[in-house]
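Quick log. Single chain, no ligands specified.
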Amino acid sequence: MSPLTGVLREAWATYRAYAGHFLLIAFVLYLIAAIIGALLTFAAGNVGAGVGSVVNLFFMFLLQAALVKAVQDVRDGRVDLDLRGTLSAALPYVLPVAAASILAAIGIFIGFVLIIVPGLILLTFWSLIVPCIVLGGSSPLESFRQSWRTVRGFAWHVFGTYVLVFLIYIAVQVVLGLIFSVLPGSGRSFIADVVSGTLFTPFIAIVVTLIYYRLTAAHAGQVSPPGYPPAGGYPPPGGYPSAGGYPPPGGYSPPGGYPPPADSPPPGGYSPPGGYPPPADSPPPGGYPPPADSPPRGDYPPPTG
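-> predicted structure:
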């Protein structure tokens, strides 16, 4: 069983339980970004639109970090950070998230231009860079390696989860398109962007963050799904020998396997003449008993000189 089994169900349950909190964060940031962009475009034309795009990117990176922080906050079953607290906690991560996201976008774009498949591979393995930065404390460059290590071993499961999320997103877009088709053309795009972003972006952030938590726990051995060996390949505790013939700790395995056979020689490499164990009628070592004419103990003459 994959550690990601049921992750969409958990994401949906989290989304429903804290919908007000997540939607408020997304709506406020989307609305502010959309208003600033519209005002700049109205005031300065194309130049203003270009500046508005930069402002919009800033708010998108802030939104990513804020939603990851919000998911971390509610994992204990309650909301400890309000809107202002969440944004304040996410603000220090905006620049690292922006740097990593831009580099990732460039790499993924090049991958898609080449043969598409490299782009999908990079999209899958780099999908956790934001949680790695916000939750794992990684630097922008380190987040790529950390995301790759976290996804490694579960890439197909991660990719399949994102395919399902993409299909859900397409369905939501179709429904919203039908709903907004009755609105006038001038305001339809603005409203549709704000509403669709507000509704769906939190769900994507929840899914990505939960994937990060689950895979991190799986690699750490805190969660060992059926069919997966314990983390590190180490045998289960509880003493040796264990089921399966695990060797004793330290990597040492005595000759002949563990535990040693009942008739194996004693440790130390010594094996008495005649094999081990000695025959029942063999004399003790040292030639005992002594000859009949040997002097008794204590009567031996002292050493000369």
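The chain has a mean pLDDT of 80.
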